[in-house]
């Protein structure tokens, strides 16, 4: 391996000019860490030096891989921030070889977000990927995520095993180290820049909208990502919502209105729960898929629109076709590319990572400290079936933070009601009526979130209107 680094005193002086060490009492979220920046742009190195210095025990900045290699012979760095697009093919190969011999976490930066660049970064073990130019708060947020993982690993090796053969992947908000997730991310990278329609199949709560948004972000499309939840819009309104309507098209249509297709021009329209779409609407969607045109309600004129379609379902659409609930011709149109999202129970090794991520993400919003997961919590993670998948895991973490109870306490019998409802009420020990159990449970959750009805409805898995109605029926005052 060729090395262009000059180890003379003058060269060492130049390196020293771009390095800084500070007192170890200055920490980010109480984490002590060291950082090596590899970037050919002097202005970017100066920018990072100014922004990262207050948070590092050691920060060194170099312009190329050869200088980094020399430093790594003498220092260990918790984190490497490396520019990938300006290295050239030989530089990328050199960087890849260098990273194979270090246990440092890696954040890649790049002027490019093409598929090849992103995939190269993932294959080399990137845990974060930032497109240039980026703001300092973006970099600090990425550094914080990585260093919190480093700190947790140092504090509890038993809870989060050190496996140098795996990576903690973060792509568009998707987190995981299992092979299923790495394979899925590679597929996403391959299909993102194409205009083809995509069908996402997976159980509720597996993150289908997040995957759809990631595909959109990686596609380079200039338009918006517009999500539509087909199951939440009444069949009578769905056509108008999607295609828009002319003035006077129906009672109450006092003015013309553009539909969601128009808002998604040049971008991506995400049709969630496509299996819930009525058959008559499926015909109209099929027309767009075949012709690339739409017609507003109350008009006869077809208008061309350039929109990419991504659909999602928690059903098996092939079976719905056989049952006559879904049009076969539309199924073939939307099923050009299919991605199956695995349920959480099939990626158990990712659960601690996800739980830690949610805890750190929710802490500022809930004004709580991040959770510290015990071995008992990890046992629960692995033994529980997680029917609600990633969404349920996030709710469990949020509930634990809000109620200040460990996961083991809340789920020792796999039942939220058993642990949250007191065994006796007003001294009574007889069995409670089901409606009274429900009332006690809801009021307990409300009390735990200081009367915040929105937070309580999320934790309970019910609509805010439903919660308001129940409280009104009970004449409950908060």
From TrEMBL:
The keyword Nucleotide-binding appears for this protein = yes
Q: Where is the Sigma-54 factor interaction domain?
A: 174-402
Say if the entry is tagged with keyword Magnesium.
no
Task: Write the record's keywords in alphabetical order, separated by commas.
Answer: ATP-binding, Nucleotide-binding, Transcription, Transcription regulation
Pfam families for the chain: AAA_lid_14 (PF25601), HTH_8 (PF02954), Response_reg (PF00072), Sigma54_activat (PF00158)
Q: Which GO terms describe its molecular function?
A: ATP binding; sequence-specific DNA binding
Q: What's one GO BP annotation on this UniProt entry?
A: regulation of DNA-templated transcription
Q: Which Gene3D superfamilies match?
A: 1.10.8.60, 3.40.50.2300, Homeodomain-like (1.10.10.60), P-loop containing nucleotide triphosphate hydrolases (3.40.50.300)
Query: Which parts pass through the membrane?
Result: none
| InterPro entries per the UniProt record, alphabetical | AAA+_ATPase, AAA_lid_NorR, CheY-like_superfamily, Homeodomain-like_sf, HTH_Fis, P-loop_NTPase, Sig_transdc_resp-reg_receiver, Sigma_54_int
Ranges for domain Response regulatory come to: 34-147
The protein here is known as: Sigma-54 factor interaction domain-containing protein
């Amino acid at each position: 391996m060729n090395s262009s680094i000059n180890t003379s005193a003058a060269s060492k002086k130049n390196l020293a000019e771009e390095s800084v060490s500070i007192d170890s009492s200055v920490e980010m979220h109480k984490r002590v860490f060291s950082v090596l920046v590899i970037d050919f742009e002097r202005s970017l190195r100066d920018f990072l030096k100014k922004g990262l210095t207050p948070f590092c025990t050691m920060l060194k900045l170099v312009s190329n891989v050869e200088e980094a290699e020399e430093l790594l012979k003498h220092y260990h760095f918790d984190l490497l921030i490396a520019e990938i697009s300006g290295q050239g093919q030989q530089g990328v190969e050199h960087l890849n070889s260098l990273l194979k011999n270090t246990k440092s976490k890696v954040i890649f930066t790049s002027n490019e977000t093409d598929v090849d660049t992103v995939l190269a970064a993932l294959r080399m073990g990137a845990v974060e990927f930032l497109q240039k130019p980026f703001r300092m708060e973006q970099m600090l947020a990425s550094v914080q995520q990585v260093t919190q993982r480093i700190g947790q690993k140092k504090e509890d090796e038993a809870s989060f095993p050190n496996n140098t053969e795996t990576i903690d992947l973060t792509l568009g908000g998707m987190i995981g180290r299992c092979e299923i997730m790495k394979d899925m991310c590679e597929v996403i990278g391959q299909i993102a820049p194409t205009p083809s329609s995509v069908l996402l199949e997976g159980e509720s709560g597996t993150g289908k909208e997040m995957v759809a948004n990631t595909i959109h972000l990686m596609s380079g499309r200039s338009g918006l990502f517009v999500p539509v939840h087909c199951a939440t819009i009444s069949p009578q309104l769905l056509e108008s919502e999607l295609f828009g309507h002319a003035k006077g098209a129906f009672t109450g249509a006092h003015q013309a209105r553009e539909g969601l297709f128009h808002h998604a021009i040049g971008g991506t329209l995400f049709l969630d729960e496509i299996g819930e779409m009525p058959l008559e609407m499926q015909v109209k969607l099929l027309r767009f898929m075949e012709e690339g045109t739409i017609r507003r309600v109350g008009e006869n004129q077809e208008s061309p629109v350039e929109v990419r379609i991504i659909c999602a379902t928690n059903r098996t659409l092939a079976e719905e076709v056989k049952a006559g609930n879904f049009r076969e011709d539309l199924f073939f149109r939307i099923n050009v590319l299919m991605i199956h999202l695995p349920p959480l129970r099939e990626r158990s090794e990712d659960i601690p990572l996800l739980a830690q991520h949610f805890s750190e993400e929710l802490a500022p919003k809930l004004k709580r400290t991040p959770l510290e997961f015990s071995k008992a919590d990890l046992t629960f993670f692995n033994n529980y079936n997680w029917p609600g998948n990633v969404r349920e895991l996030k709710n469990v973490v949020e509930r634990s933070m809000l109620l200040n109870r460990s996961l083991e306490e809340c789920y020792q019998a796999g039942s939220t009601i058993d642990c949250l409802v007191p065994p006796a009420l007003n001294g009574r020990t007889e069995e409670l009526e089901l409606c009274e159990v429900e009332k006690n449970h809801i009021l307990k959750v409300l009390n735990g979130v200081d009367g915040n009805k929105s937070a309580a409805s999320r934790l309970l898995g019910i609509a805010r209107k439903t919660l308001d109605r129940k409280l009104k029926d009970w004449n409950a005052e908060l």
